[in-house]
Amino acid sequence: MVMAGSPPDLVIQQDFSALAKMGMFEPLDEWLDKKSLFDVSRDVFVKSLMDYSKLDDTLYTIPTLGVSYGLLIREDWLNKAGFQLSDLKNWDNLLTAAKAVTKDLNGDGRIDRWAFIYPTSLSRFAWRHAEIMAHSNAFRLEEVEENKEKYIELLNFIEAIQPYIPLGSITMGLQEAFQAYAMEKIGGMIAGSFFVANVVTMATEPLQHTRALPFPLGPSATNYRVPVNNAGYAVFKASSNKEAAWEILCYFTSKERVLGHAAMINLPALCRKESQP
Fold first, then answer.
1. Could you give phi then psi for residue 132, rounded to 5 degrees?
2. CA distance 116 to 164
3. Cα distance between residue 52 and residue 270, in whole Å
């Protein structure tokens, strides 16, 4: 639509950097400094989510939802296998618990319950899951040269957890992984705070026993890390209705709209002013 000269005015975008680098998005710093009908200003947003909306220190999206990532796990299955959530401090702990949770429940020689799932048929999710595990070992995937040993540790961990992952996960995207979790075939997975909204439409029972925690520490890590990003609204630079688009954007990111949306699917990007550092 942009190339055809008929761009939309607004878009909600999670991974915005490619379009921003192509020059398609309007920089929003000056717009945010203007008075809005809906009291949208810098100090009402969570700082980390605003930071994620920047490229080269320029603001391109106004966050409406926040996403945090970690390990979602069936606490009841973990407890029945003799473990507590507090036992999952590191990768070795997770591997030990995964072995105990993975079971042939009916004795037919086939595993019915798997401890973990890693859906890899879509590169986006395959990469994201690996990135979150890399964070738990104190590095990022693009930091190759300076982190070769940590990379090897990560690859060895992924290999070690394979016996507790269904083979079919290599054909799965995130939707199929959520379905497997809802069907109570899977006891743990990496996901963001959108997890509940995706599973609850299929089943509620697993959610009663599901807990979220930072992914356990890798051998090179000393501190837990929880990656965050956001979904936010952007204005197309080629829009011919920028003033109106900005007011609509502010309406969509106002307190009432954002909290209602967040209650259904995610974390709000808004914060109380007094909670800001």
1. -70, -40
2. 6
3. 14
Residue 20 has what pLDDT?
93
Identify the three-state secondary structure at position 122.
coil
Alpha helix (H) ranges present in the chain? 17-21, 29-32, 47-52, 75-80, 91-101, 123-135, 148-160, 174-182, 195-199, 205-208, 242-252, 255-265
CA distance 33 to 209: 45
The span from the CA of 230 to the CA of 51, in Å, is 10
Does the structure show a pLDDT above 70 at 272?
A: no
Mean pLDDT across the stretch 103-109? 93
Q: Quick one: three-class SS letters along 18-77?
A: HHHHCCCECCCHHHHCCCCCCCCCHHHECHHHHHHCEECCEECCEEEEEEEEEEEEEHHH
Query: Domains in the chain, please, with CATH?
Result: 10-67+227-275 (3.40.190.10), 68-213 (3.40.190.10)
Distance in angstroms between the alpha carbons of the first and the last residue of the chain = 41
Is 241's pLDDT higher than 60?
yes
3 state DSSP class of 210: strand
User: What pLDDT score does 125 carry?
Assistant: 86
Over residues 174-203, mean pLDDT: 93
